[in-house]
Write a structure and sequence with these properties.
- This protein is of the alpha+beta class and 388 residues long.
- 37% of the residues lie in helices and 24% in strands.
- The chain has an eight-stranded mixed β-sheet with strand order 6-5-14-15-16-13-18-17, with helices on both faces.
- Helix 1 packs parallel to helix 5, helix 2 crosses helix 3 and helix 2 packs parallel to helix 10.
- The longest helix has 30 residues.
């Protein structure tokens, strides 16, 4: 079979992972990224066992795990700092074969990019058109024009590829709350375990990164606004969360004022298909979800290895993409719904509803919570045995 070519639009986690999966199978790949460089800024990322299983397929699980910190414990607390639920991370590892690993997004992206030929990475290459002229796929971009056998739209929430192939698709919908992300300076005595604290219409979470740093995130229900960063957002966090239980005030004090990022949270209404002809969508371009389950990047990694597997052994790209759609769409849309439900529960603000929520969380045994995670974390790569 002649060497096939793929153009991947978007140089984030999903796009790079897809390029690696195809490159390892003999495809000629190019990754078009509109930003001037391949990088991420300012935030951590949680990689659950299903993501590490996908990284195993890419040959990068050990590399990525060495860049991160294994979370040793965690759970959910109430506004007064009392534990509502605890996570048994040793049992999570035993059940699903991998731990929960937290690292900086920039470190993950760097590891993915370094696994590809340098000449396949094309930054500053914004895509302006994707079309099928009957014989060829054509991708127009700032660097010129590409005519691949496959186009993968991995260009995020407001995907240009999605607009090109599904112009009638409903756009992203606001979840009703915004999120702040930040990384502290190294701490002499960082918290020994992570936690998410639930308040009324607001949450604050933190987890360890390597080198004594902590990745922190917060949410608050409010109308949508433009994304922002910097000292004004740090001041807003102090206004909202400085009176919350320790270690939250101490963590905020360790965050450089210019290191706070804020973005409103959106998800994507379900698409009728992730493919059209020889064009496939993956990651946020296909199924953007809120971060409540920590599954956005994890699902994109699953997408990447599944797509490559479906393309194995067949010259019919369109048929392979239909198989990919049948496998991935039901799963990712179910995870999107589950994440939205958890976010709605976490953002409850009416005091009686908050009381019911917190009581239910406190009374739910840890093993029930862990077992409920099996449909998400128990994913196996195509050809692997089931886990969990």
């Amino acid at each position: 079979m002649p060497q096939r070519a793929a153009t991947i639009v978007g140089g984030g986690i999903g796009g790079l992972a897809t390029a690696i999966a195809l490159h390892r199978r003999g495809w000629r790949v190019e990754v078009l990224e509109r930003a001037p460089e391949f990088t991420e800024v300012g935030a951590g990322i949680s990689l659950w066992p299903n993501a590490l299983r996908a990284l195993e397929v890419l040959g990068l699980a050990d590399t990525v795990r060495a860049l991160g910190a294994v979370e040793t414990g965690g759970g959910v607390r109430d506004r007064r700092g009392r534990w509502l639920s605890r996570t048994d991370n040793a049992e999570l590892t035993r059940r699903f074969g991998h731990p929960l690993v937290v690292l900086h997004r920039a470190d993950l992206l760097r590891a993915l990019a370094e696994a590809l030929p340098a000449d396949s990475l094309r930054s500053g290459s914004e895509v302006t058109a994707v079309r099928d002229d009957g014989q060829h796929l054509v991708v127009e971009h700032r660097g010129g024009e590409s005519r691949p056998d496959l186009v993968v739209g991995a260009d995020g929430l407001r995907s240009a590829v999605r607009r090109a192939v599904r112009p009638d698709a409903v756009g992203p919908r606001y979840a009703g709350y915004t999120a702040w992300r930040m990384v502290t300076e190294p701490l002499a005595e960082p918290p020994s375990e992570g936690a998410a604290t639930w308040g009324r219409g607001a949450r604050f979470g933190y987890t360890a990164l390597p080198g004594g740093r902590m990745y922190c995130f917060a949410t608050a229900s409010r109308p949508p606004a433009e994304a922002a960063s910097g000292p004004s957002e740090h001041a807003e966090l102090l206004r909202r969360f400085a009176s919350w239980p320790e270690p939250i005030p101490a963590l905020l004090a360790a965050v450089p004022p210019d290191a706070v990022l804020r973005h409103d949270l959106y998800d994507l209404p379900p698409l009728p298909s992730f493919v059209r002809g020889r064009v496939a969508l993956l990651g946020d371009a296909a199924h953007a979800m809120t971060p409540n389950l920590g599954q956005g990047a994890c699902q994109a990694l699953e997408d990447a290895v599944t797509l490559a597997h479906c393309l194995d052994g067949t010259p019919d790209v369109a048929a392979a993409l239909r198989s990919y759609d049948l496998v991935r769409r039901p799963r990712t849309q179910a995870v999107t719904r589950r994440s939205a439900r958890l976010g709605a529960v976490g953002q409850l603000s009416w005091p009686p509803a908050v009381l019911v929520r917190d009581t239910a969380a406190r009374l739910t045994p840890a093993w029930v919570t862990l077992r409920s995670m099996t449909p998400v974390l128990g994913w196996t790569a195509p050809g692997d045995r089931a886990t969990g």
